[in-house]
């Protein structure tokens, strides 16, 4: 095996994903050399936005499963939905001289300095589910969040009819997934539905319940709710149940275990299901490919499927 592989990166090339992360534009970036390494010789740093969310636990499990199969060492940190903690965690990973960093950002803007610090240390960065607004990302492994938002809006329109009043529970402000899912949903809903409320609940179930309760106080006649993840959707279901609102349709996003169970039980009308375990595996496989000298695409799509109650 050759010891070195020259990795040529065109200055100014835009990464796909949320569209803001760019490859480096200076000579040191274009002259970087990547030492080929076997999977068993790699030390992989992983920074997850929160392990309180079952979806991201599944992403982590996907990474760890493939790592165990290949005897790859992993160092996994939980940012606990704190952008500052995540930046510190990534700094620690850099100090531990990991070979690659897999990051699921809390906030796509706040993560930029940490990504740039990894770039300076010549450590490739792979983003999962959410991108970075700056710095050099080797690839973004994510579902098409815009398409997923469109799928949710079209499903709601089909079920409750055109011009029906609906509400949206948004994710963490600043996260690319929040922006993209909202963009897709609103591209349909603003034309064919009436969005009377759109509020953030930070991708959190308890906050989803509280925000839904608040929405119902001023918009009790809504016909449907789109929650940008299953955790918020399940919180909204509880709030609606407590308020005696049995005829309000709720659609989630992610397809986590609890969300899929709720769809099967009929308490959740549908979820735009991702495959988080596969997402984690795809991200680590991209790292393996990179260190084998293979070309890694700037965007790797993880599949989506609308799962609805029968």
UniProtKB/TrEMBL annotation:
Cellular localization per UniProt: Cell envelope
Pfam families to which the protein is assigned, alphabetical: Peripla_BP_4
Signal peptide start and end residues: 1-21
Family matches, as SUPFAM superfamilies: Periplasmic binding protein-like I
GO molecular function: carbohydrate binding
An example Gene Ontology CC term for this record: cell envelope
Keyword Signal tagged: yes
PANTHER family in UniProt: D-ALLOSE-BINDING PERIPLASMIC PROTEIN-RELATED (PTHR46847:SF1)
Name of this chain's protein: Periplasmic binding protein domain-containing protein
Organism per entry: Candidatus Enterococcus mansonii
